[in-house]
Request: fold
Amino acid sequence: MTGRTWIDDPRTPLTKPLKRTNRGGICLLVAAVALLTGCTLGPSQRPALATSGTPQATIGSAASSTPPLGPGGPGQQAEPIQWTACGDVGNSDPASGLTFQVDCAELLVDRNSLNSLGDQDIQVARARAPGVGSDAPTVVVLSGAPGENGRDRVAAVAAGLSPAVRNHFAVITLDLAGTGRSGPVDCLSNRDTAALLTLGIDPTESASAAALAELARAITFECGDLAGPELSQINSTLATDDLDALRDALGQTTLNLIGRGFGATLAAVYADRYPGRVGSAVLDAPADPLEQLDARAAAVAVAAEQALDTFVASCPEFEGGCPLGSDPKATVTAAISALDDARGAAPGAGRTNGGTVLFTLLLRLGDPAGWPQLATTLAAAADGDGEPIESLLTESLGPDISSSWVGPALIYGCNDSALRMSPDQMNTAVAAIRPQAPILGPYTVGLVGLCSSWPAPEAALGAVKGTGAPPILVLGAAADPTAPYGAVRSLAGQLGSATLISWQSGHHGSYPESACVSAAVDAYLLSEQLPPVGTLCPP
Reply:
């Protein structure tokens, strides 16, 4: 079996009713799909071994009572937040069984002075562990891609923190503009979703290039038609303004932040835009906003290809043996070609193909604990059975892709970047990456083509400095295939007050997976104690 098609009726749109604020503000867009905001850039360079370094002093307080200003100015203003019990959000984390007191609120932000979006209700949730009072200090957690861990997952997000942190802070999550319940407009059709999950493995081949270009045009047209000129205004700059409005609504002069992946990058942009409003910030596996998307994709491809080599080399050590046989890498390439050769598996046709395998690899290589399962599904794919790989991809993305994190990922990714690649630029980029990442390189770079028809951005990102911000903790895993270490180090270098902790691991994200990293984060958040310069945590 080669797996079913991803759609039943390609003409049926995956949409929900448009949601408008109770103040008449216009709807915001959530659209499309990509890894663009979940990945990062830079050469995958390992740090020099350093288990200790020059000790840092405690963070302390700012010498001046006047907070330093960044591009965002002195700060946003909002009405005080009103917490109420929310019956539509679960209070327990199914994975751990931990239970919390969960409350919800609506944050009304007035954007009339910023752009044409008007008023918007941002949906917010708070989780408190037993014994944590309503007056406890707060920490806003931005975990993963936009929309991945928002309001409805607040209990799971709180459970994912270290015990010391979740038992001290009230944990806050929110649906960023254009995600979750914060005024989304869903503009992906079933046809678009199917095309995205079955893109060709090489965007320079004629059929793959045509499918990619058609999908880029379709997404741009459908989202632009639904959202209008406001399409390009949903970006990380807007999101940081909303975060600062949340800070004011909480009645706080500063905001404590924990971010991972896109969330870490967003926290860095907040520190640059509102340096005087940062209390503490932990940036786990961030991207480098200074990098263009083509360089980002190339670096991710190289890091992922290295992770693939590690994966196939470790396969014989899996419990029960290696499902991929005596030549695991050959079996992986056979899985790609076998599904590509299946009947009806043309690029963008909606039937599980080689592109589906590559998409799944990009999502799963950063979780070494799940490699045995990945190997089993690849072995099935090599035999022509695409259903296991399809199930694994669905597990990663969620059963309803139109309402998951993958929708907002593209809109934020394209709106944060000014790059729009032409076919000639794509061909050049693929030729450059092919020798370094022959399996994953062309496909990964090809994902940048999803932005090719997107309108010009309102506020593309650039270097972040955070001048005047208090000490910031940046975390990077040396072999992270999703957040290459070079990009993490580059961002830490841009932020003048950053301290970098490195972890000798290929896991995506370090906190709280590493006990060493968690101890440093706990000391930073709870005792204002910075780790030694050059700290490198062991595997």
